[in-house]
Amino acid sequence: MREREGSVLTGAFLRLWVGTTASGLATWALPFVLGIAVVEGALSATGLGLALAARTLGFLVVLPAAGVVADRRSPRGVVTWSGVLAGAACVVVAVGLDAGPDAGPAVTAAGAFLAGAGQGACRPAFQALVPAVVSEDRRQAANAAVSVAVRVSVLVGPALAALGAAAMGVAPMLLVLAGLWLLASLVPPHPDRVVPVGPPSGHGLGRDFLEGVAEARRHPWFLAGLGALTTVIMTGYSVTAVVLPLVSRETDGSATLLASAVTAYTVGALAGGLLVARWRPRSAGWVALAGLGLYALSPLSLLVPSQPVVVLAAYAVAGVGIELFNVPWFTAIQREVPADRLSRVSSLDFLVSYGLAPVGLALIVPLVDAYGATAVLVGCSVACVLGPAVAATVPSSRGFSTRR
Prior knowledge:
Blueprint: H1 11-39, H2 45-72, H3 75-97, H4 104-133, H5 139-168, H6 170-186, H7 205-217, H8 220-252, H9 256-276, H10 284-293, H11 297-301, H12 308-336, H13 342-355, H14 357-371, H15 373-392
Helix pairs in contact: 1-2, 1-4, 1-5, 1-6, 2-3, 2-4, 2-7, 2-13, 3-4, 3-6, 4-13, 5-6, 5-9, 5-12, 7-13, 8-10, 8-13, 8-14, 8-15, 9-12, 10-12, 10-15, 14-15
């Protein structure tokens, strides 16, 4: 379905981009809609925590099975049923919010779990569809376009949630999110070039997923990069999620610094996505890992919160760096991993990097209480540098490739 060979702007890719963007908007908007439900009294703070935890659990639980099904059956089929599932889940959440204090929290949490499952299932399937509709020489540009859409969704999704809930109410807004998921399930293309799938293995899902793990082990650069990414998420991202709000409150008694830093990070990421869409460095893997290591500036900048310009500049640079990593990372996975195992390797990527993130979130506050904020911020900065640096010592990390 490549309408113009050599150009990423084909009808097939644009449809895939629209579907990915719609799913991103719905994903980022849901937590804010639930937050507005708390403000309006339709959901308690405890119910919100339960729903968000259930959503994360659903995301992680479904990833291994979704990767297997996408490889053994069809990534396009997984996109369809995952979008329908997430859309139906939004309706279940709306029912739960209207069900009263007895059954309501449980129904809302169940809907959030299903929403997380739909979100988790579509991620590796969307990744597997990119090489089916975009030629290899244009995949980095395609992945950059998708990444830019994700960053825009981070900004637009919460705004969409706030404005929509204010204008229509929480329940109608949840139906809008269901519509976005339906769009995400229907609009992506059915590639003319059939994505190769593996033959029925005769094994269970567990054995089939382990085949994906075995494939991942064939790529030392992947294991090294995944370790570096997980380290940065567990340390640097945890600082942003937990310590930055505390520092913002202590600095000026408001969330101004928090909001400004997150915005600077997103703007930086947008700039990074546009940069890497065309830039092809010779040692792409080393450049990507160096970009990932730039996140060390974020926790380091919080040592001087009285200088907001320093904090904003650090988060903007970290945003550029994260896209210098993300886009070549996804492009390399699509290039190096066989199509009939791509979804499983992608699901392993998301499962490990995001699955271990709650560990960092759980440990950050006890560590601050035990050793002080300064020690934790310095330690996290060092970890953000060391993780990518160690990964760069793996020979195949230089180009994110085992090809000679």
